[in-house]
Amino acid sequence: MNNVALITGINGQDGSYLAEFLLEKGYEVHGLVRRHSISVTSRIDHLIHSPYNNVKFFLHYADTTDSSGLMRLMAEIKPTEVYNLAAQSHVGISFEVPEYTADATGMSTLKLLEAIRINGGPCRFYQASTSELFGGLPETAPQSEKTPFYPKSPYGVAKLYSYWITVNYRESYNMFTCNGILFNHESPRRGENFVTRKITLAIANILAGKQEKLSLGNMNAKRDWGFAGDYVEGMWLMLQQDKPGDYVLSTNETHTVREFVEAAFQEVGITVRWEGTGVNEKGYDSRTGRLLVDVNPEFYRPAEVEFLWGDCSKAEKELNWKRKVDFKGLVAMMMDADMQAVVGVGCEEFKNRK
């Protein structure tokens, strides 16, 4: 039987890595993209223009908020696996567009599940859940599949609906549906308004003379950061099991935003010296005294998620999954990519020039 995958959000970070992964395994891959007046396929252009195009890689204009379009595509494509990665996925922005987030991140999952139930046939379904479901309560860490949910943003609440409707369709209609509760996963393909990419890109711009300093919000927030390329393998493994289930994917360690900043600057040979606390905290180049980092209260969220630290022991045991890229390797990968793009040289060459 041919493996046919449908990926929503295929032009996002996770979608691009997942498409590569599945194509390498011989899948026929279909992706949904929304129509824009400008190109939004930069992360998958190498696939569009590769030998896979017109052979095993196909794109379809669609929107996951459009149930009629989903019904039609499900009947036409007849996928064996569906990966629902599409969402309004920025936590901070979800406070500004809560209604749209509820529709695009929450209700769209129901519409996709209905399209599968009615027109999809024997199809396995993966739902991209999130560590934001937990709310970051320190007393619950490390957070596993058994940890109570307590979302603290419109994004988290919308994802909570998606999580439970996925479980409900599994129990109500005997569908093979899985939730992947993924902790923060990053890469050089991460959007520029996410904090990790904001940090690495800002450092490259500072060194290129294009930016004065890096401004951030809560420096004490702790996150469990992994590499997106590792996590898409976990998504696939969930749909290869005999029985459907829900799994946490994480690195089993946590780091503050401040630690990420320090590690990123270290990659280019700069040690940060910190002064002050809270909104008055500032980071200086320990050698030159130049101001590199400050705190802007505008970047604080209305309800802050302070502490995320995942326990992925179930996935390690049942899926035989484990992350391959560690925290330092992730920071180095992202920092090097942005240095190459902005400065024109990688981190090691830059340090050797100093």
UniProtKB/TrEMBL annotation:
Record's catalysed reaction(s): GDP-alpha-D-mannose = GDP-4-dehydro-alpha-D-rhamnose + H2O
Signal peptide: none
Molecular function terms, GO-annotated: GDP-mannose 4,6-dehydratase activity; NADP+ binding
Keywords (A to Z) from UniProt: Lyase, NADP
Listed SUPFAM superfamilies: NAD(P)-binding Rossmann-fold domains
GO biological process: 'de novo' GDP-L-fucose biosynthetic process
InterPro entries: GDP_Man_deHydtase, NAD(P)-bd_dom, NAD(P)-bd_dom_sf
Residue stretches making up the NAD(P)-binding domain: 6-334
Family annotation (CDD domains): GDP_MD_SDR_e
HAMAP family tied to this protein: GDP_Man_dehydratase
Protein family per UniProt: Belongs to the NAD(P)-dependent epimerase/dehydratase family. GDP-mannose 4,6-dehydratase subfamily.
Functional note: Catalyzes the conversion of GDP-D-mannose to GDP-4-dehydro-6-deoxy-D-mannose.
Stated name of the protein: GDP-mannose 4,6-dehydratase
Source species: Eisenbergiella massiliensis
Gene (UniProt): gmd
